[in-house]
């Protein structure tokens, strides 16, 4: 899958590979040890956040799970 | 005025497998409208829950009657945010997805809960809710009907996409008639397993007398 920043796709794939392995083999199994993907994540984020700003994508100021606030639990 | 929609679905895979597939669901044969995918925020909380934010770009297809309401410079892509919380202790995942572009014209918010099927631990239930609305006076009904129709369509594609990715992960050959072939294969596998077990049992018995 491509990144929204064309130059970031390789970094994204490298991070995804690391994350998917950690997620399945450590995180879901309750292993609370460190995240081995911090370096590749930082590299990828530097690139993609720049692309987001360049393309003027309105992600800023959007609270995490924001729209959930005004919805009742069902 | 907001249109509310709720449905439930089930995947014949464990909750763990579904969560793993969740991060690998793009691309798949049913997601040609998804152009880009990026994780733009991720954090593990002190209570060991995984928070993530995913940014998606999708092709934006508007019906003819909407065109007069679209600003001239409106892009042909739509931006969507998907926030999620994975709780490996409770074995639940909650997601919230909404569009951050075209939002005044039509806003679709979807909340999903993924949890272990209470009757079958190797299956995963998905409870899905959607809220569809518009701020353009006079268009409410038309937007809600269009939005709901398209949402239901996309739910079908989402489930098929999931089944496809899960089948691939489990080493099966995915196909468009996945449910049918899966049922047949399960029957065949069960039968073969039964035969093999009988075989092994009789061999074991024979060995005892050697």
UniProtKB/TrEMBL annotation, chain A:
<dbReference type="GO" id="GO:0005829">
    <property type="term" value="C:cytosol"/>
</dbReference>
<comment type="similarity">
    <text>Belongs to the TRIAP1/MDM35 family.</text>
</comment>
<dbReference type="InterPro" id="IPR007918">
    <property type="entry name" value="MDM35_apoptosis"/>
</dbReference>
<dbReference type="GO" id="GO:0005634">
    <property type="term" value="C:nucleus"/>
</dbReference>
<dbReference type="Pfam" id="PF05254">
    <property type="entry name" value="UPF0203"/>
</dbReference>
<keyword id="KW-1015">Disulfide bond</keyword>
<protein>
    <recommendedName>
        <fullName>TP53-regulated inhibitor of apoptosis 1</fullName>
    </recommendedName>
</protein>
<dbReference type="GO" id="GO:0005758">
    <property type="term" value="C:mitochondrial intermembrane space"/>
</dbReference>
<dbReference type="GO" id="GO:0045332">
    <property type="term" value="P:phospholipid translocation"/>
</dbReference>
<dbReference type="GO" id="GO:1990050">
    <property type="term" value="F:phosphatidic acid transfer activity"/>
</dbReference>
From TrEMBL, chain B:
<dbReference type="InterPro" id="IPR037365">
    <property type="entry name" value="Slowmo/Ups"/>
</dbReference>
<dbReference type="GO" id="GO:0005758">
    <property type="term" value="C:mitochondrial intermembrane space"/>
</dbReference>
<dbReference type="InterPro" id="IPR006797">
    <property type="entry name" value="PRELI/MSF1_dom"/>
</dbReference>
<dbReference type="Pfam" id="PF04707">
    <property type="entry name" value="PRELI"/>
</dbReference>
<feature type="domain" description="PRELI/MSF1">
    <location>
        <begin position="2"/>
        <end position="174"/>
    </location>
</feature>
<protein>
    <recommendedName>
        <fullName>PRELI/MSF1 domain-containing protein</fullName>
    </recommendedName>
</protein>
């Amino acid at each position: 899958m491509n990144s929204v920043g064309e130059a970031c796709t390789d970094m994204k794939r490298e991070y995804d590979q690391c994350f998917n392995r950690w997620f399945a083999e450590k995180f879901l199994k309750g292993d609370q040890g460190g995240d081995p993907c911090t370096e590749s994540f930082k590299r990828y984020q530097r690139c993609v956040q720049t692309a987001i700003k360049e393309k003027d994508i309105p992600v800023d100021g959007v609270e995490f799970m924001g729209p959930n606030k005004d919805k009742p639990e069902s | 005025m907001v249109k509310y929609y709720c449905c439930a679905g089930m995947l014949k895979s464990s909750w763990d497998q579904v969560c793993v597939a969740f991060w690998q669901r793009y691309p798949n044969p049913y997601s040609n409208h998804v152009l880009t995918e990026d994780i733009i925020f991720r954090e593990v909380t002190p209570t060991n829950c995984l928070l993530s934010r995913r940014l998606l770009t999708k092709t934006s297809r508007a019906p003819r009657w909407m065109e007069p309401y679209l600003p001239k410079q409106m892009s042909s892509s739509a931006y969507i945010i998907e926030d999620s919380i994975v709780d490996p202790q409770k074995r639940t995942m909650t997601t919230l997805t909404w569009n951050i572009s075209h939002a005044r014209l039509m806003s679709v918010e979807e909340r999903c809960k993924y949890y272990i099927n209470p009757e079958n631990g190797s299956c995963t239930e998905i409870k899905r809710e959607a809220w569809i609305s518009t701020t353009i006076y006079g268009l409410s009904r038309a937007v809600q009907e269009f939005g709901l129709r398209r949402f239901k369509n996309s739910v079908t594609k989402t489930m098929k996409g999931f089944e496809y990715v899960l089948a691939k992960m489990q080493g099966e050959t995915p196909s468009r008639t996945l449910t049918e072939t899966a049922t047949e294969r399960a029957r065949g596998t069960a039968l073969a397993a039964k035969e093999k077990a009988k075989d092994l049992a009789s061999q074991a018995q024979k060995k005892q007398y050697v």
